[in-house]
Amino acid sequence: MSAAMTDVDKDADVEKNEYHSDEEKNIDDGDATQESKSSNAKKKKNKKKKNKPTITESNTVADETQEISDKLESELQLDDVEGDAGEGATVKSKKKRHRKKKTTTTVPLVQTDPPSIPIKDLYPDGNFPLGEICEHPVLDENTAKYRITSAEKKAMDEASEDLYRDLRCAAEAHRQTRQYMLNYIKPGMTMIEICERLEDTARKLIVENGLESGLAFPTGCSLNHCAAHYTPNAGDKTVLQYDDVCKIDFGTHVNGHIIDCAFTLTFDPKYDELLKAVKDATNTGIREAGIDVRLCDIGKAIQEVMESYELELNGKTYPIKSIRNLNGHSIGPYRIHAGKTVPIVKGGEETKMEEGEVYAIETFGSTGRGLVNDDMETSHYMKNFHVQHVPLRLAGSKQLLNVINQNFGTLAFCRRWLDRLGQTRYLMSLNDLCKKGIIDPYPPLCDVKGSYTAQYEHTIVLRPTYKEVISRGQDY
């Protein structure tokens, strides 16, 4: 026990000697006053260390929170400088504006009923719905596989994306318009009422804008034995009846890229076999069409299917015939009939379909002769695509041609559309333009009276890789 006390005394002496040694050293340096200040500073520092709390997790979170708060305040101040906030704007209001920007979301538009929202607004990214994608007919096994897998064909496909986008936009406008009209059209309506409602709806969806986008040709609403090219002129009081067979044929376009698509509307189920025959024939034509396919082979396949049906009306059976002088056709920019025809009976041209072409595959079935002729008052007109400059003497003809060039170009139009543009007393001028070959008239095409005709039609694109039925919908 005494030994332990001796060790403590020794340690005390050592500390005392070290303290005096340091003190003497400071005295020797003449810094006694400085040492006093230094000693007081050390005491204060030690006191602060004793009072300083230990670093805990809660303190760390608090520091991080403060740092984030400072950063947020700095960003808000920067936004305030760059924005148009007034000098009296408070920090609280700045924070609200900042949070509002973060929580803003884009709500996808939904089509109204009746349709009124433009297709481009429904699909602002430009990715319009695809049509039905089909493989080209297998004429050669290796060629068919090559088209699907070839990097070259895929690159060619991508190069035509602008064309496909325009066609798909026009096709979606057509789909939504016709789906609405299928529920809208009822017996008892006038044909003018039906056509004007359809055209007004389509114009809203496609956003009619001169020659950039709009309707590609007048609404055909041919009845019964009339197969095509009838739309009512002003004053036509024709009313749709329950027993009628009505062909609704209209077109839309974007940048001159045309969708030509048609369907047949009936209210009495006794015509079901007629509609079934024509729809089957059109789908056969679509299936047979493709790159390097001969046009005459498509016509043969269509006729075989069409004429395998028959229709019984009032106890009498009628064979359903393909109307041999009506056909499908190729489509070009601002040109509804681009030169090639797709027959719906055997025979015809051995010309082949080619890569990149656009076609309207349409078929007409009839309980009559299967042959149509011009009849009734003309309503459809179209400027001759190949016409050169023709001198005109009549001022009225010059003025009317100027209106046609500005509003329709080489797209088809009707007399109702001239009325809509404010044109009056134009029939003499229109006849003058027809006589000079500048404008071509397209009168209604009719089979024998008492017969019934039906039509179905789709637009297809022969893409380098696939065949796309652009206008296909859930309805047909």
UniProtKB/TrEMBL annotation:
Where is the protein localized?
Cytoplasm
EC number(s) per entry = 3.4.11.18
Which coenzyme or cofactor does it need? Co(2+); Zn(2+); Mn(2+); Fe(2+)
Q: What is its main location?
A: cytoplasm
- Enumerate composition-biased segments (Basic residues): 40-52, 92-103
As its record notes, the protein acts as a catalyst of:
Release of N-terminal amino acids, preferentially methionine, from peptides and arylamides
One annotated Gene Ontology cellular component of this protein = cytoplasm
Instruction: Paste the cofactor note.
Output: Binds 2 divalent metal cations per subunit. Has a high-affinity and a low affinity metal-binding site. The true nature of the physiological cofactor is under debate. The enzyme is active with cobalt, zinc, manganese or divalent iron ions. Most likely, methionine aminopeptidases function as mononuclear Fe(2+)-metalloproteases under physiological conditions, and the catalytically relevant metal-binding site has been assigned to the histidine-containing high-affinity site.
Region of interest (Disordered), ranges: 1-118
**Do you know which PROSITE patterns this protein is assigned to?**
MAP_2
Positions binding substrate in this chain are: H229, H337
In the record, the note on similarity to other proteins reads:
Belongs to the peptidase M24A family. Methionine aminopeptidase eukaryotic type 2 subfamily.
**This chain belongs to which protein, by name?**
Methionine aminopeptidase 2
- Tell me the classification of the organism that encodes this protein: Eukaryota, Metazoa, Ecdysozoa, Arthropoda, Chelicerata
